[in-house]
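Reposting from the mailing list since nobody answered there.

I have sequence plus structure tokens for a pair of proteins and want to know whether others read the tokens the same way I do. The first protein:
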Amino acid sequence: MSSHAPNRARVIPLRPAPPAREPLWRDVVGDVLRRERLAQERTLKDVAEDARISVPYLSEVERGRKEASSEVLAAAARSLGLGLADVLSLAQRDLARHSTRTASVRPPMGEVRLAA
């Protein structure tokens, strides 16, 4: 009598990979503002005071927790020596880069996956 358990095939269900979450606009814009501020080695306090925005609010905007108005975005951009169009252009570039990256990960519609 063998002490080994019989070999059993293990079935692993195939689940489609969850779709990559497309970033929210506020996340992308917040990342741009933070990246620009850090590149200039400036503090939240410095930029917020210059833009006449509260430090906690600017922090929330940078973290994508708040959807800033165009007036707030323009003030933050000016404080960083940028125009609103510059911030929006950088955000659009980041969003396009993300969408290109997720498109290469996502399988085409109708693709059949087989497992052996």
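The second protein, same order (residues first, tokens after):
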Amino acid sequence: MRALLILLPLSILSLVAALVSCSSPSPEVVMVKPVSGNAQLGSTATYVSGGESGASKKRPDDLLKEVNLYKDYIPKGTHARQYRRSMNPRYITIHSTQNFSTGADARRHSLALKNGKLRAYKRKGGNRIGYLVWHFTTDQDMAIQHLPTNEQGEHADFSGPGNRLSIGIEMCENRGNSRSETIERTAKLTAYLMHEHHIPLKNVVPHYHWARKGLSTPHKNCPHYLMDNGKPGAKWAWFQGRVNHYYKQISGNHRYVSL
């Protein structure tokens, strides 16, 4: 998706430029379940195929606490939420921001989305609303929710099922942010969303999965560090294994928290 940068403050130009390469006042962030995530893979993730067995059981809301989720919605009727487009999610789409700038964390992305800074060309067969928008952003410390999960985003494939039927999660890549901790937090959030919305593991997909019709490279190498030679392979299977590990911990339990 090609973005149209209109009157952007210099402080967020690098953020917008990087986001496009992948897909008001200061934000008042309301904490939903305040607890810091404690899972670590180490400074470098080792990619292996498959998941883990013998995971201990826990309640879904306990897993959500480990995600450290905050809600910071784009205000209704503004920017990317000018039109309410309902959705019954059937997929979860994983992205990476490809923004390596210092400070481009989940809070900074949330601020840009709330202020309508992530503009895009609105055109038939392309971006439908003139903005980029997704549901969650994760970093090493937290996850922030920008849209309710029953509203469509604009993060995957224009008018295709990736936008119409999937929850979008962007993983931060800013300098100083731990990639391994961000991946682990994303896996926990994904497992929780699978449980809440009855989404099977096979429907947890990378941005690559959705073809962007009309572009010279329809399948994007995203999230690039979970792809093998630009396509899903062993690294993506490893990530699905991490998601499945956490899903097994909460599967069979009742739901506790709605997003």
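Reply #1 (J.P.):
I read it the same way you do. The domain at 10-41+52-250 is CATH 3.40.80.10 (Lysozyme-like).
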